[in-house]
Amino acid sequence: MIHQAANAAFDEKRGLMSRLATVERATKETEIAVTINLDGAGETSIDTGIGFFDHMLEAFGRRGLYDLDVRAKGDLHVDGHHTVEDVGIVLGQAFADALGDKRGIVRYGDIALPMDEALVLAAVDISGRGALYWDMQIPYQMVGGFDSTLAKEFFIAFATNAGITLHVRQLAGENVHHIIEAAFKAVARALRAAVAVDPRAADALPSTKGAL
Fold first, then answer.
1. Cα(199)–Cα(41) distance, rounded to whole angstroms?
2. Calpha distance 212→206 (Å, rounded)
3. Which domains, from first to last, does the chain contain?
């Protein structure tokens, strides 16, 4: 595994300081490389071999305004489980690396996000305690080449490795595509609010314990 974090690195393309990280991970089942810029413009380049999953990660990057590059090669001849879960692991690690010491961030974010008839609530605490609390009624269905049950597996892996407390709750919805897409977009927007730098907090760590 390779971590190449460059927190508060200079983004020559935009002439701005950005929170950047690259993580690579190789196992007997998958090879994953992720680069994320938390202070980007939502530019994405995704290739996981699973079309619907690519679509979800593109939505995640664009709604969070993260520049996101994901390259994944997995044992898709078995199924998509290892690829989806391992992308969650590596994206979570890259997110944590890019975030750095968390000084000055808002820390919390939440949104109820509609996608046609679907409505999903996401709430996040960048707590350092990685956990997912999932209350979604997604029936089993293949959406393109994506097994709908893998949405939960992705978010478990992401939340655990990013070190965030993440609640995702379905408030309405019937169409599986809409429900899953609303979840990815809602989590992205909640995280976008949570990682924002609070000008009133300066370099303060957002914790009464003095550690996150």
1. 20
2. 8
3. 2-195 (3.30.230.40)
